[in-house]
Amino acid sequence: MTDIARVRAAAARLEGVARETPLLESPFLNEIAGRRLLVKAECLQLTGSFKFRGAWAALTALDEAERAQGVIAYSSGNHAQGVAHAAQLLGIRATILMPHDAPALKLANTRAYGAEVVTYRRGEESREAIGAGLANERGLTLIKPYDHPEVIAGQGTCGLELARQVRSAGVEAADVLVCTGGGGLAAGVALALEAEAPGLRVRPVEPEGWDDWRISLAAGRRLEAPGGESICDAIVTPAPGELTFPILSRLGGPGIAVSDDMALDAVAAAFGRLKIVAEPGGAVALAGALYRSEMLEGEAVVAVVTGGNVDPAMFRRALS
Amino acid sequence: MTDIARVRAAAARLEGVARETPLLESPFLNEIAGRRLLVKAECLQLTGSFKFRGAWAALTALDEAERAQGVIAYSSGNHAQGVAHAAQLLGIRATILMPHDAPALKLANTRAYGAEVVTYRRGEESREAIGAGLANERGLTLIKPYDHPEVIAGQGTCGLELARQVRSAGVEAADVLVCTGGGGLAAGVALALEAEAPGLRVRPVEPEGWDDWRISLAAGRRLEAPGGESICDAIVTPAPGELTFPILSRLGGPGIAVSDDMALDAVAAAFGRLKIVAEPGGAVALAGALYRSEMLEGEAVVAVVTGGNVDPAMFRRALS
Q1: What is the pLDDT of residue A265?
Q2: For chain B, is the Cβ count within 10 Å smaller at the N or the C terminus?
């Protein structure tokens, strides 16, 4: 189980390793949002996404024998890079299972961080089955991308920073929009905010068609989203996590779904107004704050830009 | 005259107003640079460039009568936005003289920050003459872009942050590469480093053809560069400033010139590896660190990315 003590312990292990990412604001974006909009630029985290936090927290919680055997992870790319880089820094061997059509940059970077990348065909092969096979065969410890108590705790360290930074900006009450796939970040941040900034409330933001959190929170139980095409590769998970759902069910506000076009517009807005590079899946929370403001209340809103690992072609598309 | 006391006084006035911009690092960029490369992301400053610092420092040093009359500035765009936004926040009327062919984003933003923009034809009209005429006619105080003691002091606050951040990163000695037009930032940072981090030394980086600092520092007197076409609109000044030259002459290391192609490659590297948006003129220091490493010594180098106000078309070009 992940609780605030575990989040704080993860923060202590991440001290001096992960970056404290800045909280940004632009008068031009405030105008579009119709309220103050504070943006946590987690794309500036090591490896270009918040995933490094959870990966480091999970790997530093392993015992010596587990570290010596190595770890395995599956991911479309950001968790992959986070685990690969954390493992590299800790001298742990990492095997990463990635879809063969993951963004080229994410595949290349994961290899460049020293991991062995094994690809599988999304929709045809089961990554869980392949992963379990490799883990068994090689004695590897599986580092799940979100349903893992230490991963949730590590992502929660983003929330500890957020609580402090939002208060420094003079905001006591606001919705905190978080790009959400399996819910590791949203759940971790929710635990941190419950303890440190009770006026802030997490709300998951997802791509249309992959809004399983939105429908699950409304229904009070874990439901699958219909799926479909999406450019938000980082967060196209079909259903809320087992460990993350109870946390957000207790602490999270209603979910928000945004279109691919809104995500691309948010990528362009982050480029023009914040001077940060966001990937589409990392920009859906910003898209929610800017273009779904009818879903929001209050004088301020916070959005976490969760990742910036976008191929140049997709970025050029966002700017055109 | 600008000295460290004036820089510290400017820092006190900027406290809680300007952003402390992060110091970033990427193992991929370290590999290209052949040493540790620490990047100060000043493109994340308010208005998208370091210029806000100097503008705020200069405007907050005005007396009540001067504030009531208003200010004038000339600039290709970053000083323009810095002065316009600082003036807006302080309730001061700002008139900004800009070349008619400045990047569209910079023209639009300067107006959006509430300034009156007057355009002139670069190469045909003298901005100094037009500026002096308007200043006289309307009783405005001219806020020069670099040859201004308070502007230099304000830009120096970037150096105070840098000194602390670089030390926290475990680096005691390094060259600090700074994108340089008139030298306001480089001079201010040099004063800050002299006082706070004597192992760090500023070196100006400029576009080829506009490397007046490089030739002037080598000659020991202010010389004009030949000029020519450049995409680095932010830093195509023909000669070192009168106030900035003596400071860098005493404290700065040899200058470095980079090509437009190197600047574009650095924009792409900042996009891919640091997830920040740099404009070509704001990326020349990074270009120097990455692609002119034969000009460097030592185990570490620091580069200041000075601005991110780039039109989408130019950014797409950098990514293609």
Answers
A1: 98
A2: N
| E strands, chain B, in order | 23-24, 36-41, 71-74, 94-99, 116-120, 141-142, 174-179, 200-207, 256-258, 300-305
Query: Cβ contact (<8 Å) for A44 and B274?
Result: yes
Q: ipTM > 0.85?
A: yes
- State the fold for domain A52-142: Rossmann fold (3.40.50)
pLDDT of residue B44: 98
B91: how many CB neighbours lie within 10 A of its CB?
A: 9
Sign of dihedral through CA atoms A77, A78, A80, A81? Answer: positive
Contact assignment for B44 to A274 by CB distance below 8 Å: yes
Q: Which amino acid is at B306?
A: T
In this prediction, residue B234 carries a pLDDT of 86
Residues near A258 by Cβ (< 8 Å), separated by ≥ 6? A205, A206, A207, A208, A266, A284, A287, A288, A291, A292
Summary mean pLDDT of chain A:
96
Check A105 against B272: CB less than 8 A apart. Answer: yes
Cβ–Cβ under 8 Å, residues B71 and B47 = no
Q: Domains of chain A: which residue ranges?
A: 4-50+149-319, 52-142
**The domain made up of A4-50+149-319 is a member of CATH 3.40.50.1100:** yes
Establish whether domains A4-50+149-319 and A52-142 are of one fold: yes
Tell me, yes or no, if A319 comes closer than 8 A to chain B by beta carbon.
yes
Rounded to two decimals, what is the model's pTM? Answer: 0.96
Bridge partners of B94, per DSSP, are B71
Cβ pair B320:A316 closer than 8 A: yes
